[in-house]
């Protein structure tokens, strides 16, 4: 018979009120309690705590306190990651984040779901579907990413979006529900390259 943890990670119905899962949650609570009380002078210690918390990280990772998550160990983060204040990861199922990803304040990644049928939901059964975020992605403030969503490389998600379906690579997407506004073009590249050149010349 599968454990509740195995069911959870397989995207099947499971019950969170399980000793193994409660122990995982208690570990997360302890690390985050310490992390969220650290000061800006404790940068190296913050990185150490984050590496203990998550399943994997790159060498460069910075998360502004306060930060919250369900387990931590189910989140896998690439190089050069930044998350601003009050981000929240419900990592019931795995969250995979690529390299050079930036999250604005109050970005929420929700892998968790509950049955629509109230009788089943009241039995405390729940489930989770993975979230995958590609490389070079910027997600605007107060965005919610729902279970099972994949966001492609180089994409920008506008602030306040609710992402309910996959978003392709190389686009700007906005709204509730989040939809593609337009592709990111060579004109965008040329404009921002010119702005960068001005910065270094002045």
UniProtKB/TrEMBL annotation:
<protein>
    <recommendedName>
        <fullName>Acetyltransferase</fullName>
        <ecNumber>2.3.1.-</ecNumber>
    </recommendedName>
</protein>
<dbReference type="InterPro" id="IPR018357">
    <property type="entry name" value="Hexapep_transf_CS"/>
</dbReference>
<dbReference type="Pfam" id="PF12464">
    <property type="entry name" value="Mac"/>
</dbReference>
<dbReference type="Pfam" id="PF00132">
    <property type="entry name" value="Hexapep"/>
</dbReference>
<feature type="domain" description="Maltose/galactoside acetyltransferase">
    <location>
        <begin position="5"/>
        <end position="59"/>
    </location>
</feature>
<keyword id="KW-0808">Transferase</keyword>
<keyword id="KW-0012">Acyltransferase</keyword>
<dbReference type="InterPro" id="IPR011004">
    <property type="entry name" value="Trimer_LpxA-like_sf"/>
</dbReference>
<dbReference type="InterPro" id="IPR024688">
    <property type="entry name" value="Mac_dom"/>
</dbReference>
<dbReference type="InterPro" id="IPR039369">
    <property type="entry name" value="LacA-like"/>
</dbReference>
<keyword id="KW-0677">Repeat</keyword>
<comment type="similarity">
    <text>Belongs to the transferase hexapeptide repeat family.</text>
</comment>
<dbReference type="InterPro" id="IPR001451">
    <property type="entry name" value="Hexapep"/>
</dbReference>
<dbReference type="GO" id="GO:0016746">
    <property type="term" value="F:acyltransferase activity"/>
</dbReference>
